[in-house]
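Shipment paperwork, digital attachment
Item: protein structure file
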Amino acid sequence: MKETKSKLILVHSGNFFPKYLNDCIELALRQNLDIHLLLSKNLHKYVNHNINIEILEDYQDAKFANFKHSYLPESFNDGFFNRTSSRFFIISNYAKSKALESFFHIENDIAIFSDLISTRLAIEKTKNNIMLVMDSDNRSVPSIVWFKDYQSAQNLSDYIFSNNNFTDMENLGNYFNQNRDIVGNFPLVPFDYFKSEIRLDNMFEDFNQIFDGCAIGQYLFGIDPIHHKHPNENSVGFINKTSLFTPSKLNIIWKNKAPFLLANNIEIPIINLHMHCKDFSKLI
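Attachment content:
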């Protein structure tokens, strides 16, 4: 495929507009990404950027309407547990309607530092239909996901719909473990720093970049205040206990407001950071 702009899909299906979504879009625009935002029509007015905004309701279907997580509360954070899973139905339907190929999805609290062109071209040379982040043996935080085409997205969304007793992270982890012949994982660290059954440096020699599920972003900037035990808690330096590696052991530096891992005197770009804290102010 030609080195055109990389397509990036963002989805928000909640009833309230998250202010940090504008920050996410701002950083993505700086990288010259082709952004497709799917958002409820009544929330379009809150977007501060001139991008392609689609009416989310146009891509809802029976799966979206009928999906309910089997045991997690619907009332938590504007239906968070249902929305994080059902967004994949929206992505699948939108990709099919537009006949999209080779596209990315990031979560709304992700800071992106790449145009993703070299990333995309490297993936397209593989046999993978999906690429995701595996930072735990049985969980994938879908901070960044690549899809070969709409059929790949539909297969994943069908799997999620049929397994509503798992969260989106658990379902993506299970889908990866059951389909390793067609689902690959982005490298989290280079040179196999940390030993794991899952290759944390998978395809690093192809990308020469690393990616963040949640561990690095949480360590650098902290976690969402909704999870704080005390209102004024400072969670910078947080270590995610389920992560397969320890971010405090990495030497992370900044150049032009972009993060790099310094390893063996080599500066390795960190393509994304999960801003779990929802505060992008130090990056904008």
